[in-house]
Amino acid sequence: MSWPHRQHFRHSRVLGATAVVAALAGGLLITLPGGASAAPSGFADDFNGDGYHDLASGAPGAVAGGKAKAGAVVVNYGSSSGISAARHKTTSQSSSGVPGASETDDRFGTELAHGDLNRDGYGDLVVGTPLEDVSGDADGGSVTILWGSSAGLSGGTTISDPNPSGHDRFGQSLAVGDFTGDGKADLAVGSTGKDVWIFKGGFTKSGGAAGKLRLDAQIESGAYPRGAVQLTAGDFDGDRTDDLVVGSATGNFVYRGTAAGPVFQTEAGAGYARALTTADFDLDGHDDLAVGLGFADLLDGPAKGGYVAVFYGGATGVDTKRSAVFSQATPGVPGTDESNDWFGDTLAAGDVNGDDYPDLAVGASGETIGSAAGTGSVWVLRGSSAGLTGTGAQSFSQGTPGVPGTNESDDLFGDALHIADHNKDDRADLSVAAGGENSDDGAVWVLRGSTKGVTTTGAVSFGASSVGIGKSGDDPMFGDSMSGS
User: Fold this and answer.
1) How far apart (Å, rounded) are the C-alpha atoms in residues 195 and 289?
2) Which of 94, 131, 143, 132 has its CA nearest to residue 469?
3) Sheet of 251-256, strand order
4) Containing H/E element for 131?
5) DSSP assignment, residue 439?
6) Residue 288 to residue 310: CA distance in whole angstroms
7) CA-to-CA distance for 226 and 247, rounded, in angstroms?
8) What are the C-alpha distances in Å from 22 to residues 41, 42, 399, 485?
């Protein structure tokens, strides 16, 4: 598939990291088959409750139910040895208990987010299918919650679009966070319209959300890629209520969480953010906002190959006067700033070296290496008491010693990113997808965290066929989305 054509489907992916909301009631016991009992971990991304963070990846072009590009999602389970291809579960709309039906070009799994939405201690997976036709409405879009359980994801519930005639592509962006401060995880859903919907917790498997709020964002609606292209959540003012960031083609708008729902605070950076994520990079008690502007060479930005702008949080929320910019031209950051690199195309945050400061992974899926265009690379920037820094930055590609594979044109290594501690060694691991690998079959790599940062020792890589997704003459693009990326 050619590079420009592929990007048509990439605009709508959720690239910001969803806030981790794990509301676990003390002493909650879940009865397992055979009479055994165990308390689930409460991790928002532990879908089977075994105490390990899991990895959820989308394959929106996968064949499901015999339908081309119907789409599927794959969960690879964490363990004491980390992530492997063998420990996985693949789910589509043809799976038992999942609402709807696999249909041609639905692209189930285009968007992913996670959180413990029904407060049973198991992480749940939210799946956006923005190209699904709903009741005759072409590309009306749909959102499905897949419920966590001791057996992993099992069954699902549809979150109905409250305004189907007012927009298209419902579910083109997703974020989970406690936006009302009541201790329950809420779900924010975007579309091509200005209306962002907040579905309130607690959720139930039979009834869905407890209620809903409409946020009319200060963004442009209309033809794709308008509307809420990106969403992410973070507590920027430290009040223990999550704030919501709405990314659009014209700017990124921060809404402070309140008991009545999100209220506009400020605009953080102009231009089309390709990715959003949040973390407290300087450990001052306030989350910070990272904005990936991979299209900088098209938008007259400060770096021709793309850049990341970081806006630090404070007592009053996102502080647009306290910010920093990172690119391949930043001292300490490996590489060269070149047009069409798309540095900042994807982002993920987490502590890879165990020093408590979150680090930032930055993808440049358009990076050319040698003569191979669109090969892709990933960087890791370190967090510190002064915030993010280029000092000690690392970079990885399929040409890095220890990383399986070979740099090839249109692999798009870094197409999606995820950071989480999958083996409980207190150092988060970096997962990297390349949706274009092997002619759009797609593949995923997991590089382990260590005291010195990300290491290629023990690196794991697996493709679509390893998790039960066949090509069947189509383009599965396994890994094209990751939850929490």
Assistant:
1) 22
2) 94
3) 230-234, 243-247, 251-256, 263-270
4) none
5) H
6) 7
7) 10
8) 9, 5, 38, 18
* CB contact set of 34 (below 8 Å; sequence gap of 6+): none
Q: What is the pLDDT along the chain (485 residues), one digit of tens a residue?
A: 322 223 333 322 232 333 333 332 222 222 233 333 346 888 999 999 999 999 999 999 999 999 999 999 999 999 999 999 999 999 999 999 999 999 999 999 999 999 999 999 999 999 999 999 999 899 999 999 999 999 999 999 999 999 999 999 999 999 999 999 999 999 999 999 999 999 999 999 998 999 999 999 999 888 767 899 999 999 999 999 999 999 998 889 999 999 999 999 999 987 788 999 999 999 999 999 999 987 765 555 677 788 999 999 999 999 999 999 999 999 999 999 888 889 999 999 999 999 999 999 999 998 989 888 889 999 999 999 999 999 999 999 999 999 999 999 999 999 999 999 999 999 999 999 999 999 999 999 999 999 999 999 999 999 999 999 987 657 999 999 999 86
In the chain, how long is the greatest CA-to-CA distance? 63
Indicate the DSSP class of residue 183.
S
**Omega of the bond leading into 335 within 30 degrees of 0 (cis):** no
Q: What does each C-alpha distance from 425 to 45, 47, 357, 460 come to in angstroms?
A: 17, 19, 16, 17
CB 368 within 8 A of CB 409: no
Report the first-to-last Cα separation within the chain, whole angstroms.
23
**Nearest one of 313, 261, 271 to 294, comparing CA atoms:** 271
Local structure of 325: helix, strand or coil? strand
Can you tell me which residue has the tokens 């859903």?
189
Determine the residue type at 457: T
Amino acid letter at 35?
Answer: G
In degrees and rounded to multiples of 5, residue 77 shows phi and psi of: -85, 140
